[in-house]
Structure formats: C-alpha cells, structure tokens
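The authors assume throughout that readers already know how a fold can be written as discrete tokens. For illustration, here is how one protein appears when written out as sequence plus structure tokens.
>
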Amino acid sequence: MSKITILTATYNRGEFLNRLYISILKNSNYGMDIEWIIIDDGSTDSTENIVRKRILENKIDIKYIFQENSGKMEAINKGVEIATGDFIIDCDSDDYFTEDAFKIIKKYKNKLIENPNLYALCFLKKKISGEISGNKFKKDFMISTMFELYFKGGITGEKILLFNGEIRKKYKHILEENEKFITEARMYHQIDEKYKIMCINEIIEIGNYIEDGYTKNMLRVYSENPKGYYKYFKEILQKDNKGVKLRKKLYIWKNLIKLNFLIKNKN
C-alpha cells in the first residue's frame, strides 16, 4: 500500500485544523496509508489540545511537533525530515482536501512512480466559493517545470504539488540569516534544475487566503524577509529567460528594486 505524508505547518490556527482533519478522514478509504505531520510554530491558542484529542481518537497516524516560533519554512523543513511517505503533500492549516482528493491521487500516482524524471504531480486548487485558483493547465499530462509554468506558460494562481517523497527529502527551504520566510518557488526552481512536474487538471484542495495570511500582506513579508526574496529574484535572472513575457520581466525588476531599497532601509 502506498503511503502519503501530509505536512501542515500551523500557528494559532487551531480552529481550522478540525476541518482539515475531517477532510483527511473522508479520504482515508481510498487504499492509501496516511501520515499527517503537524508542525506547530509556537502557537499560543488551543492548537495542541485540539491535536492531542485527535491523536487519542487513533483514526489516522498523526505526529505533532512543537517548535519555538521560527516560521513556516523551518517548520516544513522539520516535517520533511521525519516524513516516511512514498508521497509528500503540503496542506496549510486553513485549507482542506476535496472529498475525492486521495482517489484522484491514487488514480495518477503511478505516473509519478514510473517516471524517474518527475519530482511532482501538479494539481489544481479551488476557492471555497467554487472558482479555481488562477487558471487551468493548457492540457493534461503536460510535462513542465514550475518556473516555465509561471514565467513562460501564463499559469496563475496557487497549485498543489504531490511530491515523490524520496526526491522531496533531498531539498529544503533555504532561509537567509535570521529571516523566517521565503516563497516555496525558490525551492521549486532549485528542484526544476534536475527534475520536472506533470500537470493534471483535477482539483484536490480547497481554501481561501485569510486576511492575516502571507499573500494578503506581501509588502510586510518583503519587509521582514528582504534578503531571501532579493536572492530569489536574482536567481530567476540567472535562468534561461528566453520566452519570459515582458510583464514578468518588469515584475522581477520592480521587486528587485523594491527589495534592494528595503535591505538598505533595514540596515
């Protein structure tokens, strides 16, 4: 039986975890072994009590890790280290799975297993309102990289990656100095150098950006983590930018200028 590890980094989002837990239970009958690793990034709410209660129910394998507040990326790095699944998937505490998510994963997982050049299957996500986050892929089973999708292929919105567990464990999110956050894309672009992804137009996760989330507050995120983001955009310029649309190039340079100012201002 194939095993899937779900990674959830959380901070003071205890009230959301029950919804995610229920969605995992609904997916537990599709013939996949489930491991849910929850990394608590220093929560001060009822998160631990909520998780301990679910562990005692003993319906799925739940591992709970508490760390002093170090940020989401360090939390995910710790989760990956102890993950034992053949596949690894991230699911934020305020998101949850569709009722047939693991049925879809089971249907396509062999495409990931059988192709050593693939590091992930890339699925769709939808908002609670029902609309897809961003746009769909041009066709199913398209082979690409995350960089090519977003900077050359016109893909927008959040997508969900089901990783080959063995490959995923070779990589981690790299943080600069005392910073706590960096976009997941920086790591994706690193894996892109050796492997590719396969795109599938199936929805497996649901969720909205909440008001205090990173996406809603990018200027604050940039201000608190300018060095990592500056390096991320510089690394993009070092890639093959042939085919990158002008608006994307302007987006890169605009952010480099902004981040250079923030670094100097912070110093």
Q: What stands out?
A: The mean pLDDT is 95. The radius of gyration is 18 Å. The beta strands are 3-10, 33-40, 61-66, 87-90, 96-97, 118-126, 142-144, 159-164, 196-206. The chain has one domain: 3-215.
